[in-house]
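Notes from the 1:1 (GR / supervisor)

We went over the backlog. Supervisor wanted to see one worked example end to end before approving the batch request, so GR pasted a single chain during the call. The sequence is below; no edits were made to it. Supervisor asked that the structure be written out right there so they could see what the output format looks like.
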Amino acid sequence: MNLAELILLAVALGIDCLIVSFSQGLCFCKNKKRNSLALAVTMGLFQGGMPLISYFLTGTISKYLNSISSWIVFSIFMFLGIKFIFEAFQTENKDTLCTIGLKNLLLLGIATSIDALGAGVTLKFTGTNIFEAAVIIGLASLFMSVVGFSFGCKFKHFPSKHLAVFGGIILIGLAIKAIF
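Structure output shown during the call:
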């Protein structure tokens, strides 16, 4: 793959990061810089790391995960989407919900990077420099995550219950998209 193709691949893989980060920005604007950075670094590391894993384990890991990868993504996004909607209707103090938890960061990182895992196999077969590709994919995902989170925070002036439900619906939509 040439540089232009790598950049297009990175942008395509980063779309999920952008959308997920937007939904998180709707809910977690209190510590905007910390949350945005934590989410962006998580997205960048997972998106850049997954192709490395599959590149070096091509043949072993891909034959097992290809058949169920859509269902893994579906399950994680569905779980998080339902959780967001459920939490929107709880009456607890919303000020305590200031940071994205480590568990959510890890789940979102895994869910958004399953496609990147598959991309590593393609990169192996095309003879692409995997380290260059991983850096480009990771940086694109990091950048797109920051942009998505920032846009999500800009919509924060809407009632928080509606935003949490909307963020949950976005995640459920991504879950459904994953299996079709």
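Supervisor's comment: The chain has a mean pLDDT of 83.
Batch request approved.
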